[in-house]
Design a protein that fits this description.
This protein has 316 residues and is α/β, with parallel strands linked by helices. It is built from 12 helices and 12 strands. A 7-stranded mixed beta sheet has the order 8-7-6-9-10-11-12, with helices on both faces. A 5-stranded parallel beta sheet has the order 2-1-3-4-5. The protein is elongated, with a radius of gyration of 21 Å. The protein binds NADP nicotinamide-adenine-dinucleotide phosphate. The site of NADP nicotinamide-adenine-dinucleotide phosphate has 32 residues, from helix 5, helix 7 and strand 7.
C-alpha cells in the first residue's frame, strides 16, 4: 500500500478504487490546498493526484523524496514542472482524448454565444426591456459560412473543425507542424479560436500585435489556457473596438477577481473554465487519472503519460 495525496474530491467513484488499494489522503476543501499545506501533506507520499490549479513545481517535487508518480486531472500539464519530474524519472499522467468533444462543444457554444449575443439577450429579458419583436434588436453576426481560424490543430482543434464543417465554415488552422501562417490566420478569420497548450512559446501569443492583425469585426474565443491571451492587450483591444468581441472559458489570472478590468470591457463573455465540465467527461477524467496513478504505483507504464521518455530512460 502506497501513500497518496489527492488535491480535491473528484466526481464519480474513481477515488473509491484508489482508496481501496492505497492509503489515500484527499484534500477536503473546495479551493486548492495552499502551497504550504500542500508541502506539509506530501513529504512522504509516493503518489500525487493534482488538478490544474495546483502548482506542482520543482521545489515541491524536490521536497517529496519518495514521490514516484504524478497524475494530473487535465490534458494540459502546464501546472506541473514536467522537466523536474522527468529528471527524477517520475512519470506525469494526464487525461487526453476523453475531454476533447466536451471542450470542442463548449468552444462552439462560446462562438455562438458571443456572436449571437446570447448572454446580453438573457440579461435584456430579465431586465424587463423586451417590449416587442424589433427588426434591429440585438443584431449579431453569423457563425455559418464564416472563416474560422483554429490555433493549435490537435485533438480539440480538429474536433472544433469537424463541428464547423456542419456550419459551412472555411477553416484556417495553424500549429508548429503545419497549416497557414499565424499572421494570415489572424488577418483572414471572422472567429479565432485557441486550442494550443500553454508553453513558454504560447504564453502571450495573442497580445497587442496579434489582436491588431485581427479584423475589427472578428471574435476571439479561448478555451485553451488563460495566459495564451494577454489580458491587458485584450482589454484595450475590446475597449478600442479593435476586435468585435471575445468569449473566454479561461483567463489570466484565474479566477478573475470581480474588480478585474476585463470584466469592465465591452463585448466580452466569460465563464469559469468549464471546457470539460460535463458529468460524463469529468467522471471519465477521474477514472483516467486514477488508472494512471494505479499503474504508476504498480511500476507499470501509465496508460496516458505526458513524459513517456521516463520509460525509455528506464529501459536504456
Ligand atoms: P493536443 O492534441 O496536444 O493539441 C495541441 C495542438 O497545439 C497540437 O496540434 C500542437 O501541434 C499545437 N501547438 C503546440 N504548440 C503550438 C504553438 N506554439 N503554436 C500553435 N500550435 C501549437 O492537445 P488537446 O488535447 O487538443 O488540448 C489542447 C489544450 O487545450 C490543452 O493543452 C489544454 O491546455 C486545453 N484544454 C482546455 C480545456 C478547458 O477546460 N478549457 C479542456 C481541455 C483542454 P504542434 O505540436 O504541431 O505545434
Amino acid at each position: 500500500m502506497a501513500r497518496v495525496f489527492v488535491t480535491r474530491e473528484l466526481p464519480g467513484t474513481a477515488l473509491e478504487r484508489l482508496a481501496a488499494a492505497h492509503d489515500t489522503d484527499v484534500w477536503p476543501g473546495r479551493r486548492p490546498p495552499p502551497p504550504a499545506e500542500l508541502r506539509e501533506r506530501t513529504p512522504d507520499v509516493e503518489g500525487l493526484l493534482s488538478l490544474l490549479t495546483d502548482p506542482i513545481d520543482a521545489e515541491l517535487i524536490a521536497a517529496c523524496s519518495n514521490l514516484g508518480v504524478i497524475s494530473n486531472y487535465a490534458v494540459g500539464v502546464d501546472n506541473v514542472d514536467v522537466a523536474a519530474a522527468t529528471a527524477r524519472s517520475i512519470p506525469v499522467g494526464n487525461t487526453p482524448g476523453v475531454l476533447t468533444d466536451s471542450t470542442a462543444d463548449l468552444a462552439l457554444a462560446l462562438m455562438l454565444g458571443i456572436a449571437r449575443r446570447i448572454v446580453e439577450g438573457d440579461a435584456f429579458v430579465r431586465a424587463g426591456e423586451w417590449v416587442t419583436w424589433e427588426p434591429g434588436l440585438l443584431l449579431g453576426h453569423d457563425l455559418h459560412g464564416a472563416t474560422v481560424g483554429i490555433i493549435g490543430f490537435g485533438r480539440i482543434g480538429q474536433a472544433v473543425g469537424r463541428r464547423l464543417e456542419g456550419f459551412g465554415c472555411e477553416i484556417l488552422q495553424t500549429s508548429r507542424s503545419g497549416g497557414v501562417d499565424l499572421s494570415e490566420l489572424l488577418e483572414r478569420s471572422d472567429f479565432v479560436t485557441v486550442h494550443c497548450p500553454l508553453t513558454p512559446e504560447t504564453r502571450g501569443l495573442i497580445g497587442t500585435e496579434a489582436l491588431r492583425r485581427m479584423k475589427p469585426t472578428a471574435y476571439l474565443v479561448n478555451t485553451a489556457r488563460g495566459p495564451i491571451v494577454d489580458s491587458d492587450s485584450l482589454c484595450s483591444a475590446l475597449a478600442q473596438g479593435e476586435i468585435a468581441g471575445a468569449a473566454l472559458d479561461v483567463t489570466d489570472p484565474e479566477p478573475l477577481p470581480a474588480d478585474h478590468p476585463l470584466l469592465g470591457a465591452p463585448n466580452l463573455v466569460v465563464i469559469p473554465h468549464l471546457g470539460s465540465a460535463t458529468h460524463a467527461t469529468r467522471e471519465r477524467m477521474a477514472d483516467m487519472a486514477v488508472d494512471n496513478l494505479l499503474a504508476g504505483l504498480a511500476g507499470e507504464r501509465m496508460p496516458y503519460c505526458a513524459n513517456p521518455e521516463v520509460y525509455e530512460a528506464t529501459r536504456a
